[in-house]
Design goal:
Layout (H helix, E strand, L loop, with lengths): L1 H24 L2 H7 L8 H17 L2 H5 L5 H22 L5 H19 L1
Helix pairs in contact: 1-3, 1-6, 3-5, 5-6
Length: 118
């Protein structure tokens, strides 16, 4: 179980670090061109979402890895799950595919529950 949780944590961290990093570092025009849903948010909101994703990516791995405040890992995973609930709502409203968001939601909930019990 520990190995499966680590695989899930690393996968979540990689996906959210990449997604959040793009939202934080790319120009707004480029983001809207590649991610049409970005037009539903102000620049500050979109950057805020990116910051939450990057912090969640760090939080889902680092506390458990270092043993410093490991209780933050399941909370970070829960936070990432909540971001996916929001993402599912946005994409569904726009009639865009949500399968990746559902998969990330399931993975985040797996880590949140799994690390809460260990």
């Amino acid at each position: 179980m520990n190995i499966a949780l680590w695989v899930a944590q690393i996968l979540l961290a990689a996906v959210f670090l990449a997604a959040g990093g793009v939202k934080l570092l790319r120009p707004r025009e480029e983001l809207v061109a590649k991610m049409p849903f970005a037009q539903d948010f102000t620049d500050a909101q979109f950057r805020g979402i990116g910051a939450v994703e990057v912090l969640g990516a760090v939080g889902v791995v680092l506390p458990w890895l270092t043993g410093i405040a490991p209780w933050l890992t399941p909370l970070a995973a829960l936070g990432l799950a909540i971001t996916q609930v929001g993402a599912i709502r946005v994409h569904a409203r726009r009639h865009e595919p949500v399968i990746a968001n559902v998969a990330l939601l399931a993975l985040a909930l797996f880590v949140a529950v799994g690390r809460s019990l260990t």
